[in-house]
Design a protein that fits this description.
The protein contains 4 helices and 7 strands; from the N terminus they run αβββαββββαα. It has a 7-stranded antiparallel beta sheet. It is globular, with a radius of gyration of 16 Å. It has one domain: Hotdog Thioesterase (Thiol Ester Dehydrase, Chain A). It has about 180 residues and is α+β, with helices and mostly antiparallel strands.
């Protein structure tokens, strides 16, 4: 079982490398168990993030255990990828701590498990100090647009995060360090 897990992790790391050498890798937060981005979550997506300073990117392949019908990716997983990329785009590009308020997903083309995908998040509109509008897209290996999303994200100051007990001090410090890159 350990050998299978090691092969899975190596495969996930290999598939998460960007094709564009101009993209800057963003640091991986290892002090969390997030289903989408934590390297510690053995059942998760292990998303890594990259930027060209105008968008945030992730390169993933959805594992077989997250399928819907036959070899199609489950719609909830597609939605998770889009929510996560928009979230990290908001955190990195706006330099703010965020929480998802709402997202809308349009499923355009089938997304298959175990295929390479490019996920892109951008700031659509920064409205004011408490709200931002984001967009997300998923492309298959041939460059075909497969899914899009828009999202509204609440922007928080560190003080408001502490007031609402959303994260502990270690997670807060990690995010603040990430936002200063």
């Amino acid at each position: 079982m350990a050998d299978i897990l090691c092969l899975y992790i190596i495969e996930r790391l290999f598939m998460s490398q960007p094709e564009d050498p101009n993209l800057k890798a963003l640091p991986i937060r290892e002090n969390n168990h997030c289903f989408a981005c934590s390297p510690k979550n053995s059942c998760g997506l292990h998303m890594n993030f990259y930027t060209d300073e105008s968008a945030v990117y992730s390169f993933v392949s959805i594992p077989e255990h997250l399928c819907g019908w036959n070899n199609l990716a489950h719609g909830g997983i597609i939605s998770t990828l889009l929510d996560e990329i928009m979230s990290w785009a908001a955190i990195y590009l706006l330099k703010r701590i965020i929480l998802t308020k709402s997202i809308t997903v349009d499923f355009i083309k089938p997304i298959y498990i175990q295929n390479s995908l490019k996920v892109v998040g951008r700031v659509k509109d920064h409205v004011h100090e408490r709200k931002a509008f984001m967009s997300g897209e998923i492309f298959d290996a041939s460059g075909t647009l497969c899914a899009t999303s828009t999202g509204t994200f609440s922007l928080f100051t560190p003080e408001r995060i502490k007031q609402h007990q959303i994260m502990d001090d270690d997670a807060m410090a990690s995010l603040i360090e990430f936002m200063t890159l």
